[in-house]
Give the backbone structure.
Amino acid sequence: MSGKPSLAKRIPKIRLSAVIMTAYLLFLLIPIYWLVSMSFKSNSEILNSFTLFPADFTLKNYETILTDPSWYMGYVNSFIYVSLNTLIALLVALPAAYAFSRYRFYGDNHLFFWLLTNRMAPPAVFALPFFQLYSSVSLFDTHIAVALAHCLFNVPLAVWILEGFMRGVPREIDETAFIDGYGFTRFFTQIFIPMIKPGIGVTAFFCFMFSWVELLLSRTLTSVDAKPITATMTRTVSASGLDWGVLAAAGVLTIIPGAIVIYFVRSYIAKGFAMGRV
Amino acid sequence: MDKPVNQRAWILVLPVVILVAFSSVIPMMTVVNYSFQDTFGGNEFFWVGLEWYRELLRSERLWDALGRQLLFSAIILAIEIPLGILVALCMPKKGWIASLCLVLMALPLLIPYNVVGTIWQIFGRSDIGLLGRIVSDMGISYNYAQNAFDAWVTVIAMDVWHWTSLVALLSYAGLRSIPNAYYQAAQIDQASRWSVFRYIELPKMRGVLIIAVLLRFMDSFMIYTEPFVLTGGGPGNATTFLSIDLVKMALGQFDLGPAAAFSLMYFLVILLISYVFYTVMITTDKDGATQ
C-alpha cells in the first residue's frame, strides 16, 4: 500500500520534474520568441535600443516581404517544388511500399537497404554531381530539378513509413477483394488507399517537412527562377547584412507551416523523425 | 506471417528504382569518374589514377576537418543523449499538458535548417541578440564571429537546441511502452527512483536509445547548413566540418578531382555507419516483436 511516506516523497519529485521541463521548454522557446519579437520591430529599434518587447510595434517587415516579389516569390518557389516533390514521392512510393509489405521477391532486402543508404547519404556529396547532371539536361534553376533531387531522400522515407502502415492492414482484405473480382488497380485505388489514409497523411507531412527544411541541394540547383526562400534568406545576409527585421520576419514565415500541421501529427513525430533520417 | 514469393512485385517497385537510380546512381558514377581524373578548363580530362586519394590522405586539411568533425559529434552525443533522457523522464504522462509539451518540443525540429542558423546568429550577437547581450553584460567577452571557442560553444548550443527534442521524443516513446505492472512491482519492492531508472526504464529504452545515438551521430557527422549560416565555417577554419569543407572544395574552388575523391571516402564512411545502423534496427525490431 502506498501510504503517506511515498506520497510525501512523490510531491517534491513532481515539482523537480516540472522545473526541469519548464526550463527546457524556455530554452527552446526563448530563441524563437526573440526572432518573433524582432520581426515586429523596426530596424532602428533593433540596432539602437535593446528592448525585450517591441516598443514600437510594426508590421512593416511583413509588408516588405509580402509586397516585394524577390521575397515572396521565394515562398512560392519553395512551395511549388516541395509540393511537386511530395506528390512524386507519394505516387512512386505507394505501389513500392505495397510490394515490400505484401510479397517476397528477388533481392527485396538488398533493395530496401540500398534505398535507405540514399536517405543517409550526406547531401554535400551530391551537390556537385547534381549541379552537373541537371545542368546537362537543362533543368538547372527549375522547380522540377529540386523536386527530383529531393526524391533522393524523400522516396526512401515515404517507402519506409508507408510500408509500416500497410503492414498493419490484414492481408485477408486483399484476398477477399481479389476473390470478389476486383482487379489490382481498382482494388488498390478504391479499397486499399482509403484504408491507409492516415498513413498517407503522415508520410506527406514528413516528405513536405524534409523538403521544406533542406537548403544545400535547393540552393545549389537554383539561381533566379526557382530560388527557394531559404536561399533568399542566406543571400540577403551576405549582401546587406543589415535588414534584421525583414530577415526575422522571413524566418517566422518559414516556421508557420510546420507549426500549424505539427498538432495533427504529434503522436507520429518521434517515429517519423526516427525513420526520417534512416 | 510469411509473405508469399511473387516476382511480379518488381513491377510495383520499378518506378522507385528508376527514380532513385536517376538521382543517386548516375551522380555517383560521375563522382567516381572525376575522382580518377584531372581537368584543365573543365573540358579536357586526364587519367591520374589514385593520385587524388593519395594527396587527400596526406593533406592536413582533410585530417583537421575530420578531427573537428569527430570532436563535434562526440560533444553532441555527450550532451544530447543524457539531456534528452532527462527531459523524457520529466515529461508529463498524460492530458493536454503532455500534448502541449510534445508540440512545443517538436517545434525546433520543423524549422528550416538555415532559419535555425539565422535564429542563433541573431540570438548570439552581442549588439542585437538576447543571449549575446546578457553574456556581455555579465562581463564575459563573447563574440562567436571572431573567437573560435565562442563559435564552438554557439554551434554546440544551437545543435543541442535543435536536436535534443528528437532524443527526448524517442526516449519518451520508449518509456510509454513500459507496462504499468513494472512500476507497481518496483513500488512493492520499495525500489528507489534510481533503481527504477537503472533496472526498469533504461533496459526498456535500450532499443530507442541505440536509434537515437546512431541518428544523432550520423546527423551531426553530416551537419552543413546550420554552422554554414551561423559562422560560415569560421573564424578561420574553426568550425569547418567535413560537409562545409567538401562544398567549399567542390562548388567554391571547383576542384573536381579532389572533391570527388573526398566525396567517395566520406560516402563510404557513412555507408559503413548506415550498415551498422540497419543491422541494429533490424535486430531491435525483432527484439521488440518478441517482447
Q: What stands out?
A: Residues 109 and 162 of chain B are 6 Å apart (CA to CA). The mean pLDDT of chain B is 83. The radius of gyration of chain B is 24 Å. The longest helix of chain B spans residues 256-290.
